[in-house]
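It would be a great kindness if you could assist me with a short task in structural biology. A protein sequence and the structure tokens that stand for its backbone fold form the material at issue. I should value your view on which stretches of the chain appear to form regular backbone elements. The record follows directly beneath this note.
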Amino acid sequence: MKNHTNIYLSKSLYFQCQIGWTIFLVIIMPISLRRAKIDDFIQLQNANLHCLAENYHMWFWLYHYLLTPQGAHVAVDKNSKILGYVLGKMDDEGRKSKPPVPLHGAITSVAVFTSYRKLGLATKLLSYTHKTLRECYKAEFVNLHVRETNRAGHFLYQRTLGYKFNKLDEKYYADGENAWSLRYTYPECDTSHQPKS
């Protein structure tokens, strides 16, 4: 798998001038998606602190990186500034259960800076991570948790990416809010629509 993917996102801006004219401006932004590196951890932690209520210590980032090096991806601008990230890993507990759970990934965190939201960046990062977890680790599905009140997250995961509701985890978050456990099943692994023999 190649080290990065270049994409171009456009952002439309409208300006109303004092003399009554409306100016329409489209900005094309070259953005690269690539695997996260250890050098990115400070910027990743900064993005996490600015974008999310759930924050992680540096050891947590390192743990994910060591467990699943191909599971974390970043979107960077032409100056290598991180605009968003996905922190994912392969499940490290499921294989110990009896019977063992099929190989699967877990998305721990997704964040995009506010000024880069609504551009499809999270969708592209998650799709890139799905592809990598499947190609590198043969994952059969990917799980994640989303706050019960996060309507934008529900739309992204369920409507845009095809995640399905798995279960409700009560008081999952530190502040006591419930989480929805969602699951993305790779189309080639989905047996729910196949006839039973």
Summary: The first strand starts at residue 4 and ends at 16. The chain has one domain: 31-189. The helical segments are 41-51, 58-67, 121-137, 151-160. The chain is about 25% helix and 35% strand.
